[in-house]
Batch of 2 targets.
Target 1
Amino acid sequence: MKIHIYVEGGGDQNLTLTKCRRGFSQFFQKTMPSNCQPKIIACGSRVQAYKRFCTALQQYSDVFCVLLVDSEAPVADNQNSWTHLKQRDDWDCPFSANNDNAHLMVQCMESWFLADKDTLAEFYGQGFNLNVLPKQFNIENIPKNDVNQRLDAATRHTKTKGKYHKTRHGFDLLALIAPHKVRQASEHLDRLIVVLIKKSNNDS
């Protein structure tokens, strides 16, 4: 089955949208069989991602469509993505969708980087301060503001790249980090990968 992932990110410029699409594509390439790679649609804002996802559900009867956005906040235990999105954004689950169609980066895309600190350190090189990053293993419990502040602090004095920047660094990092490490530290990503592999095997 074909899979399209409508992802939040990339802003509103072609260059940054392309970087977003490439970063997510390279990330998922490491988790999926080569003959059933998902198509990434970089949508810019989270609202635009939701709107394009809803439109795609009506347009493509032969495609499994996925919405992937930041949770922006903690997700309650045993709460599914649509319940969280309804409470936070007042988004309804479309009639033709179910819990397998909506997934969250908890609490933001940058949280995933904290699961692979070795790649972070290698990417930034000299001046990177590993010690200021959060120590907890479950990255989903780290508040979004804390993730961003710690990334800024860890990278502020790096010699070649400077302080973390979402469009200059974020999507390049996404392409480099190890998905298996993120899956171990993020139950929501693990759930997404399980769903994608299931759908790629035409098990609906």
Note: The first strand starts at residue 2 and ends at 7.
Target 2
Amino acid sequence: MLNQSKQTANTETILNIPFFSGSISEVLNFIKKGGLLTAPSGPGLANDLPNSFEYRRSLERSDIVLADSGLLCLWSRFFSKKTLTRLSGLEFLRKFLHSIDFLNDSTFWVMPDYSQSHKNCAWLKREFGADIDQGYIYIAPQYSSNSFIKDHALLTKIEQKQPKYIFIQIGGGVQERLGIFLKENLSYKTSIICTGAALAFLSGCQVRIPNWVDFIYMGWLYRCISNPKVFLPRYFKAFRLLILLFKYREKSPIL
């Protein structure tokens, strides 16, 4: 079992989650040394955090947690003594992919299905010349909705390949729990990247979000306009996060 400690104390604790409060360049430097990076969304914090012990534990034990939620950061700015700097998973992943050497640094990709895997890999090849070998791609099975995740087939495959970077590209609320399973069971030090649908935005599997839209915290609105039936209900539920923030502040929201 790999025992990794927190790599930085540069955090602000909200809802018992140690959100990273530095810059993107600092995040890049830290995560390249190994560890679990998560970027929980507003809906994930609003719905999964209070109801799933394993999701909550995965964030609390992450080495770096990005403050990806614009709603969380706005609340901290106006109603808390702690001001979080928003670090979006989309911005981080874009810069991280440009900072690594695909020829010399091995990468491993956990994909949600074959269709998205094909589109994501085609985009990586166009953008970076990265020809991802099929042996370094894993199509995730249907994991449980909120309990502990074990995937020994994936664990065995990663142990055999021992990649430097692992990118988990399945849904938020699930990928964090898979990430903590890998962190606690891999025998070697690696970087585990959980950035939600960020790669799907970049590759076009989901609607592409312009940089300026992401910068002004409006990525959620862009998604709602692109597919209102799917995203309007999801983001409407995210406003529950405000109730949790006002009620619990620094404490863990266990319902």
Note: The chain has one domain: 12-248.
